[in-house]
Design brief:
About 30% of the residues lie in helices and about 20% in strands. Strands 2-1-4-6-7-8 form a 6-stranded parallel sheet, with helices on one face. Strands 3-5 form a two-stranded parallel ribbon. Strand 1, helix 1 and strand 2 form a beta-alpha-beta unit. The radius of gyration is 18 Å and the shape is globular.
C-alpha cells in the first residue's frame, strides 16, 4: 500500500509509477482522508510506502498529521519505505518520519529521494521547459532504480540530503510556525470557478462573494497557484510575473 501526497503532480507521478510496477494499492493523503480516520488492512506480503514532497526540509504538515494518526491493521514487520521529491535537496526530512513511525513500532527500511522540477514559485521562478525536460528525464531513471530497490526490499538510503541538511530543525520550526495563508489573494482575473476550493487538499480555501479566501491549516503545497487556469491566484508581490508548473510526462 502506498500513501502519497502531491500538490503539483511530482509525487503523484512517482506513486503511480511505483504502484503500476509493484501492483500495490495507493491512497491519496488529504484532509478528507484524515477526517475519515480509517484503519488500513495490510496484506501478508504487502509493502508499505510513503511518497511526498519536501517543504523547507520538512514533511508537509498534512502528511505528518496523517501519519501521526495512521492505523495499520495486520502490520508485522512488513517492508516499509519512503520516497521524497525535492527541487534542491531533501535535508534530514526522513529523520522525522523515522521518529514518527518508530513511535508506532514501524521500522522505516528504505529511504529514497528524487530530484524533480521545483515548484516553489513564491521564492523563485520555475526553470524553463528545456531544463524541466532534463530534470524529469533524469528523474525517470532515478525512479526506475528506486523501484528496483523497493521490489527487492532493500534496507538502504538513496537520497541527496544536501550540504546544509543540519539546518533542518530550524527550517522545520519556521515552516510549522508560519501562517501560510495570509499572503494568498485572487486578482480580478478570477472568474469564481471554485476549482481552487474543490482542489485544495487541506480544505483551506473557501469562496466568499465569489472569490477564494484562505483560512485554516494550509500545508503550503501551492496547488492553488499552479492549477489556476486564469493565473488569478497570487502570493505576495512576486508570483504574478513567474511561471506556473504542473507535472507532465517529459518528452525526449
Amino acid at each position: 500500500m502506498i500513501f502519497y501526497f502531491s500538490g503539483t503532480g511530482n509525487s503523484k507521478h512517482i506513486a503511480d509509477k511505483i504502484a503500476n510496477s509493484t501492483g500495490e494499492r495507493f491512497v491519496s493523503i488529504c484532509e478528507c482522508a484524515i477526517e475519515k480516520n480509517e484503519t488500513y488492512e495490510i496484506e501478508e506480503d504487502e509493502r508499505i510506502g510513503f511518497v511526498f514532497p519536501v517543504y523547507w526540509y520538512s514533511m508537509p504538515t498534512i502528511v505528518e498529521k496523517f501519519i501521526n494518526q495512521l492505523n495499520l491493521s495486520g502490520y508485522e514487520k512488513h517492508y516499509v519505505y519512503a520516497v521524497t521529491t525535492y527541487g534542491i535537496a531533501a535535508g534530514n526530512v526522513m529523520d522525522r518520519l523515522t521518529q514518527i513511525l518508530k513511535q508506532k513500532q514501524v521500522k522505516l527500511s528504505g529511504i529514497f529521494g528524487v530530484k524533480m522540477v521545483d515548484n516553489y514559485v513564491v521564492g523563485y521562478d520555475i526553470v524553463d521547459i528545456d531544463k524541466q525536460r532534463i530534470i524529469l528525464n533524469n528523474a525517470e531513471l532515478e525512479v526506475d532504480k528506486i523501484i528496483s530497490m523497493i521490489k527487492r526490499r532493500a534496507n538502504d538510503q538513496y537520497i541527496k540530503k544536501g550540504v546544509i541538511a543540519f539546518v533542518t530543525p530550524v527550517t522545520r520550526y519556521a515552516y510549522r510556525k508560519t501562517d501560510h495563508t495570509k499572503k494568498f489573494f485572487a486578482t480580478q482575473q478570477c472568474n469564481g470557478c471554485k476549482e481552487c476550493e474543490r482542489g485544495c487538499p487541506c480544505n483551506a480555501i473557501h469562496m466568499r462573494n465569489g472569490k477564494p479566501v484562505w483560512a485554516g491549516d494550509c500545508t503550503f503545497c501551492l496547488k492553488c497557484i499552479h492549477n489556476c487556469r486564469q493565473s488569478a491566484i497570487q502570493y505576495g508581490r512576486f508570483t504574478a510575473k513567474r511561471s506556473r508548473y504542473q507535472y507532465k510526462e517529459p518528452s525526449q
